Amino acid sequence: MESGRLAHVIAVLLVVLKSCSSESAPEEVAPTPANPPVTEHYLAPTDDILARDVAPDFTFAVWDSNGKICILAKFSASFKITYPSLGGEEHISVNVPEDAKVKGRCGTFDREPLLELSWTGFRLFMAFTVVNPKEKQDTWELLSMELLYDTTNPLFDGATNVGKKTVRTLEDGLFATQYGKSYFCPSPDVIPMYNSEKEKMVLARMKDVHLQVYDVQMGKFSPFQRCSLVRIGGLPEPFAQDETVPIAVGSTLAVMAVLVVIGYALWRNLATRKADYDFME
Length: 281
Hints:
7-stranded mixed beta sheet, 6-stranded antiparallel beta sheet, 281 residues, single chain, alpha+beta
């Protein structure tokens, strides 16, 4: 009886020891396979992201959020500025540099496009508009042009009443152009600019003006509408001249000159013959 109970206890102990040894034994870990190659996936580039219009050489350009040019401008300009000094009125001339910094805002039919050029001590703003957009009159023009400067600048030698100044145009209808076309003029009229007291303080002279502020296609100027007048030696002359008139006048003068020469030759011939006849008598 006692021996049977002892055998049973020993059997239970063996089972417990076996189970403990199996739990404490380290599990075999399967070898970790090499990391699989990682393929990097990129978004395919789209034309909208990369197709930023390239501005033509020597132009001032404004881009929209899609990289498309919405304003193109190419011109040279100088401003003759009058300012008071201790010795009376003085004048300086300032040119827009080719490397002026460009800012701007694209325009729509209900928002005016803006072009801003800035350089040391000066800022030039040009605002444009569509004429009567509700009536669908497809014409755009210069709404206003402003020049900001500071007479504390050393350029204004001996200036009195120094400080920041703003002058702007008062004339309407400048650079009027058919919608979808660019404006071109070799030498527009001189543009006066006035201070807040309506005193003329600046004269703007522009040359070789090429502008387009609406419907720019592929970053290039559209076919241009040329101004009606150009200036030669400071005097306005019509650009589109009818060549028929000067040709007709020149031809008439040439014929008259030939007739005068022939008439004079005939008169001399007759006069000589008459003199010879009188001498013989």
